[in-house]
Specification:
Radius of gyration: 20 Å
Distance between the termini: 26 Å
CATH class of the largest domain: Mainly Alpha
Mean pLDDT: 86
Helix content: 25-40%
Number of strands: 3
Strand order of the largest sheet: 1-3-2
CATH architecture of the largest domain: Orthogonal Bundle
Number of domains: 2
Strand content: 15-25%
CATH topology of the largest domain: Arc Repressor Mutant, subunit A
CATH superfamily of the largest domain: Winged helix-like DNA-binding domain superfamily/Winged helix DNA-binding domain
Low-confidence stretches: none
């Protein structure tokens, strides 16, 4: 639910999108969207601007988050030297979802 909302906000660009349009496009309730928007606002990813549209007070939601990946390299990724790479994947004996080396490598880049 949140990822679809974020995608629409990013696509709206710097002009943002009216809350009513967001409700219409996501087919979510206004209260559910406002919860998502408030959460994104607390993280500094969106700005909620009150404006008058067609004589009614509403909000324009503007994406402020970064659209670029913070990672610019895969240097040091343990997958590239893993001896089990040919047996790694969903329903395989080895999986990226449970790989401690990969998890550690990713977490180090997120900190």
């Amino acid at each position: 639910m949140e990822s679809g909302t974020i995608e629409l906000l990013r696509d709206a660009g710097k002009q943002g999108i009216l809350l009513a349009e967001l409700v219409q496009k996501t087919k979510q309730s206004e209260s559910a969207l406002l919860q998502i928007i408030d959460s994104l606002s607390q993280k500094g990813q969106v700005t909620k601007v009150e404006e008058n549209h067609d004589g009614n007070s509403t909000f324009r939601i503007i994406w402020q988050g970064s659209d670029e990946s913070e990672w610019d390299t895969l240097e040091g990724c343990p997958c590239f030297i893993c001896p089990d790479i040919d047996q790694c994947g969903a329903s395989q004996p080895t999986s990226p979802w449970v790989c401690e080396k990969l998890g550690t490598w990713i977490n180090e880049r997120l900190d």
